[in-house]
Amino acid sequence: MRARQLIDTLKLEAHPEGGWFRELFRSAAQVMPADGRPARDALTTIYYLLEAGQHSRWHRVQSDEVWIHLEGAPLALWTCDAALRTPPARLRLGPIDSHGTHPQHTVAAGQWQAARPITPATPGAEGDDYTLVSCTVGPGFDFADFAFMQPDGEEAALMRHHWPELAALI
């Protein structure tokens, strides 16, 4: 119920990586990334909502991305180095608690990332069935700097082999 209300009130649209989003801010200022990319907007910000059963597919962005939990269920956020040399780290975003949950995390440029809400395991159980976050990217988000993990690619094969429990997020 609350997820649908947020989707309507915030005017969210379907996002290609899963879930719902709306861009909130795109800086008029431009910066030149040090890695040779062309000029980018200095900063962009979106709302991003995942309902129970939805996930953000494994992807990477060539700019730093800050995830900030706004409301709803905690969010499981996995990150892994670009070459998948180390096991994916699982972070828990949400209100600060004794389980190591924090409201904010920055994913460094080029790292693989995927996410899904930590919702009640039993339908109808108490708890939220969605997660609402804000994501800020700097230098600003541009689809030219974005890549999904391709299901038939080498990275996906490594993920399936080493961490099969996370392959469902490809």
What would you note in describing this structure?
With 170 residues, the chain is mainly β. The chain has a single domain (2-169), classed as Jelly Rolls. Helices cover 10% and strands 41% of the residues. It contains 2 helices and 13 strands; from the N terminus they run αβββββββββββββα. The chain has helices at residues 2-9, 154-162, and strands at residues 13-14, 20-26, 30-31, 40-41, 44-51, 56-61, 64-72, 75-80, 89-93, 104-107, 112-117, 130-138, 146-148. The strands form 3 sheets. A 6-stranded antiparallel beta sheet has the order 1-2-5-12-7-10, covered by helices on one side. A 5-stranded antiparallel beta sheet has the order 9-8-11-6-13, with no helix packed on it. Strands 3-4 form a two-stranded antiparallel ribbon. The longest helix has 9 residues, at 154-162. The model has no long low-confidence stretch (mean pLDDT 95).
